[in-house]
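A favour, since you know our structure tokens better than I do. Just paste the record in under my message, thanks.
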Amino acid sequence: MKKLFVALAMAGACLDASVAYAKKPVVMSSLELQQLQGRDIEASKDQVFGAVMSVLQDSGYRIQAADKDTGLITGIASTKGKMSYSLWTGFGKSKKTPIVSAFIEQTSPSTTHVRLSFVMGKVKSTVYGSGAQDEEPIYDVSVYQTAFEQINQTVFIRQTMKSPAATVASPGAPIAATPVATTVAPAAPSAPK
């Protein structure tokens, strides 16, 4: 009986340890965090700043602050809250909201470094106001990969649109022929002069 009790106690201790280990927060070194959150992009700071703003807005973030000179952008996404009650503050709403901050800096004439930080903030609002209470960093690699892929695509589109071949000619100006890889519909005939 004593052996059974000891075995059950040890099994319970192992189970408790595995549950505690499963709930342990992710701990990353500063170098691992920089590799997860940062990327170099071959474009000017102006192009990358606009691309990051566009991607964040397309992803549903409301930009709270943006400053091109410092390269800082902060945004918060919309979520639905649930009613809560506190003995001290009364009724209010509580929700978890994605929050993002971005730092964009020119590292060379043709390269810009972008660092993104995504967190889930628990926001509470009461009759006395609202504000973020707790924040959990997001360490999911796919979140950062998706964001940087979208930023790279947006930068590519912006660079393509600003290239000399993509500029729109003024009416009546001769149009230079450029090779196109896809089939293009013939242009409508111009009106006689």
Remarks:
- DSSP finds four helices and seven strands in the chain.
- The beta strands are 38-41, 61-67, 72-77, 82-86, 90-108, 111-126, 129-137.
